[in-house]
Write a structure and sequence with these properties.
Elements: E1 3-5, E2 8-10, H1 18-31, H2 34-46, H3 50-53, H4 58-61, E3 62-63, E4 66-67, E5 70-74, E6 81-85, H5 88-100, H6 122-135, H7 145-160, H8 163-170, H9 175-182, H10 186-194
Antiparallel strand pairs: 1-2, 3-4, 5-6
Length: 198
Amino acid sequence: MVILNRGQRSGVKKPFRLEEIWRIRTRLEIENNLMQLALLNLAIDSKLRASDLLPLKVSDISSQDRIFNRVKHIQQKTDIEVQFEITSRTQQSLIKWIWLASLSASDFVFPSPRLKQQSISYSYYRYIVRKWASDLGLDSNLYGTHSMRRTKANLVYAKTKNIRAVQLLLGHTKVDNTIRYLGVELEDALLLSESTDC
């Protein structure tokens, strides 16, 4: 269902496709925008909601100048623990960002540029994601912070068709939620059936 909200569409936000992620990364690297590059990479790897991603502290993802390969995190919305990987690409971008911003272990990974002792706001994060979409020539109304949560989950599903794996990665309690979340419906079922020869 799509609801009009002050001229903007709201509802389920689209995930980015792999080639779109690479285009965003390339642009951020050319611009040397280390904060947004680290944000993009960690948002994709973690698959966390904004309410879980933005409050992360440096100590949550690293120790003694070393970024963890895996992190356990209890989701605020569901109180369910999830684990996520931090790929080497993301580790490198985080190390560069943390060093550039002179962040300490107790600092937010993405501190507010204006307000001391606070992370960037949800609205600023949403603005950044929508700008990435707009810079690609996409309809920015179709993208938001949840696009980042959905991106890797959709890529994992597209590659493996393993609903249970995606369910675990997202921390969903019911597989039905994951099916709806991914939009796995009749079309996918028919394609799978057509490709199965008996």
